[in-house]
Amino acid sequence: MIAGSDHTSEELLKEFGNFKVLHIKVKLEKIKLADLSQEFQLPDALQSLIGTQEGNRIEAKVIYDQFEVDLMTEESAGVKRLFQIICPIIEILIDGRTLICDELEASLHESVIYQIVQIFHHCQYDKFAQLIFSTHDTSLLDTDLFRRDQVWFTQLNSERATDLYSLVEIKNVRKTENLKKGSISGKYGAIPMLNKKFFQELEKGILE
Question: 182 and which of 68, 125, 187, 208 could share a cystine (Cβ 3.0–4.6 Å)?
Fold first, then answer.
């Protein structure tokens, strides 16, 4: 799926205000990599390669209105994922670049993905930014979110090569059609090549 427009960093952060993050506290300190050998039980061969080299230890605390948590050890996978992508998104929106992401929905709630797409669609900035991503989340097949020419499908053919085609190329798709329902039913193709016999036997074995 493809979305395009532009945005400022300040407006982007407001879009995710429901998280009620007040501040991110980051601590950066120099450490000797050899000191990590006991903490992480590094093998002897690796310790000998490290020698006296130094590195950076980064600790990040997420400050909420009444408490703070360690980003890496105490936050959920979804919040970690959001923090991983929000800085690249800000940079891409400001510079007018393209973000290409495989399975953008990984660890993120569909409403967050919806907001991200809306940001690319409706932002007001002097440069054009674009979002291209793959997804298995059929809830995003929404004509209020995407035009039909922005929705593309992939289908594995009999030669195990991938065919790529647009929703526009499919005939008899009404403007008010429930795209999610049509996708799940296989109307547009782009469904897994399932071994139906296997699942029939599995279902038979469970029911017996």
Answer: 187
- HEC letters along the chain: CEEEECCCHHHHHHHCHHHCCCEEEEEEEEEEHHHHHHHHCCCHHHHHHHCCCEEEEEEEEEECCCCEEECCCCCCHHHHHHHHHHHHHHHHHHHCCEEEECCCCCCCCHHHHHHHHHHHHHCCCCCCEEEEECCCCHHHCCCCCCCHHHCEEEEECCCCCEEEEEHHHCCCCCCCCCHHHHHHHCCCCCCCCCCHHHHHHHHHHHHC
Reported as a single tens digit per residue, the pLDDT across 163-196 is 899 999 998 888 888 998 888 888 888 876 555 6
Query: Does the model's pTM come out above 0.85?
Result: no
Q: Is 186 exposed, middle or buried (0-12, 13-18, 19+ CB in 10 A)?
A: exposed
Neighbours of 188 (CB within 10 A): 19
Spatial distance between the Cα atoms of 165 and 152, rounded to a whole number of angstroms: 6
- Which tens digit of pLDDT belongs to each residue from 83-124? 778 878 888 888 889 999 898 888 888 888 888 888 888 776
pLDDT of the residue at 196: 60
Q: What is the mean pLDDT of the chain?
A: 77
Residue 109 dihedral angles phi and psi, to the nearest 5°: -70, 150
Phi, psi of 16, rounded to the nearest 5 degrees: -105, 30
Q: Map tokens 């979804």 to a residue.
A: 78
